[in-house]
Amino acid sequence: MRIRAKHSAALASALVIALAGAARAEPDLDAKLVINGDLEMTTIAPAPAHLEGALGDNVISGWHYRDAATRQMETDDFENPAMSAVDEALAAWDTVDGSEGKSCADCHGAIEEGMKGVTAVLPKVTEAGALWSAEDFINDCRTNRMGAEAWDWDKDPMKNMTAAIALQSRGMPVNVAIDGAAAPFWEQGKEMYYTRYGLLQLSCANCHEQNNGNYIRADHLSQGQINGFPVFRLKNDGLVSIHNRFAGCVRDTRAETFSKGGPEFHALELYVASRGNGLAVEGPSVRP
Amino acid sequence: MADAKPRVKAPASAAAGEPFAIKTLISHEMESGQRKDGDGNLIPQKIINRFTCDFNGTNVVDMTLSGGVSANPYIEFDAMIDQAGELKFTWYDDDGSVYEDAKTIDLA
Amino acid sequence: MTYTRRDALVVGAGGLAVLAMTRAAWAVTADEAIAEFTGGAAMGEGGITLTAPEIAENGNVVPVEVDAAGAAEILVLAPGNPSATICTVAFGPAAGSQRLSTRIRLAKSQDVTAVAKMADGSFVSTSQPVKVTVGGCGG
Predict the structure, then answer these.
(1) Mind listing the domains of chain C with CATH numbers?
(2) Closest CA to B86 of B8, B18, B3, B25
(3) Is C102 on the interface with A (CB under 8 A)?
């Protein structure tokens, strides 16, 4: 396993190797993620061909980059604090909302059946030619089928539901389409991934491609995979959506960020998801 | 997470005199009383301040919590039984709310 | 109910019984908390273990476990926190061990401390240093 150690000049000042002398074991590439004692998760997978070796031979889940205590919390649904949020969403799934008198279950049946495998292929292009994330599908149902109000992209009801839906794909390989109708979106996302933003002039690739495995302050940079989203972030004590994480990254480059749910982050979500094609869907995962 | 929701993981049966682990979790923000809001005012403390577990009326653990316990308090401990019965779990909130859960357990 | 610091001092002087009744959390130092817990009794070592990570990735959620066979009650302290007392746990007749595992908040790197009151009324304590690191992004 090769961890890219090349420093870019721009990053040299941003990265602090503060704990160079401390013995930290992360990323621990030998660790195995088994959830609830029986669900073996693919956390290291052969890199998709389109990466052309940019991440070495393998793509690696962010789980490996966390310390043992954080990793442990994801191995048991009882210890995973995201499961309280999932419980909320499961209740919402069966609850009638809106003018049409429908619940999610009325059309989709049991969530375990109706949503199986859905997250693994999101985001995807609709028949109308739009690139949609889970949030778009949920709000389309709510406003057009249920006659209910749209949920805010970044508020609990939406995050809870995306977590509950992701759970129905847990363990299945991420497999987003990047060709055909998805191709132009994917190209746009790739362009963004390698574009430097903000006063710090950092691209996604500067941190997550060239420096994954290195420290940023006292924390390991991961490959920036999104197979574990939504994540339960211990620091926030709550779920974090993909677009929220993107916004945080762009903000940290000291740039004006794009809007959550906007076309830029949709395209970036597709591209970043495709970098993890082959990794198991891990959402809702646990991260510091 | 608006409502505090308790979760308990305990075995369905246990051998007499053999210790077994119980895991509990309750969704709760555990507002420590140390934080300030956007206007610089202290946010009042609102925590789960006490947790108890009893078996058929006999105490297993009685825990007093401060704001130093993490949000969504996770509490794991061992119990021991000599008869079938009911494990009762109670969480006490600063706001006066009391959350309860119970698990029946058989002798193995 | 709100407490001023003066009220807190007055109530605190009332001793453990009052403390247990009100369960108000105000800033206490580790020394104060230990004095309350032990009544000033001598402190021994051994017979108590405290398990905590050497380095905690996030100070918001640090898993700790205390274990003191035969203890009646265990006090867990974070001396470097604004309020040092984390929790106390009393073990009843139906306890299968004198072990407690929980997750705590640490404001900074410090020696997490546990004090056990043994069945014979003696006290033992132990400490474990935990380094709390600064997160990389969004922190």
Answers:
(1) 28-132 (2.60.40.2470)
(2) B8
(3) no
Look at the block and give the residue holding tokens 């265990």: C74
Please indicate whether, in this complex, the C-beta atoms of C63 and A252 are within 8 angstroms of each other: no
| CATH number reported for the structural domain that contains residue B77 in this entry | 2.60.40.10
C94/B65 Cβ within 8 A? no
Q: What is the mean pLDDT of each run of 10 residues along chain A (288 residues)?
A: 42 38 64 95 97 96 92 93 93 97 97 97 97 98 97 97 98 98 98 97 96 87 97 91 96 95 98 98 95
Measured CA to CA in angstroms, residue C7 lies from A176, C12, C25, C133 at distances of 62, 8, 12, 36
What pTM does this model have?
A: 0.84
| Domain assignment of residue B38, given as a range | 5-107
Inter-chain contacts counted by CB atoms under 8 A, chains B and C: 114
Give chain B's end-to-end CA distance (angstroms, integer).
Answer: 37
Q: What was the ipTM of the complex prediction?
A: 0.92
Q: Distance between CA A227 and CA A64 in Å, rounded?
A: 13
φ, ψ for residue A105, nearest 5 deg: -65, -25
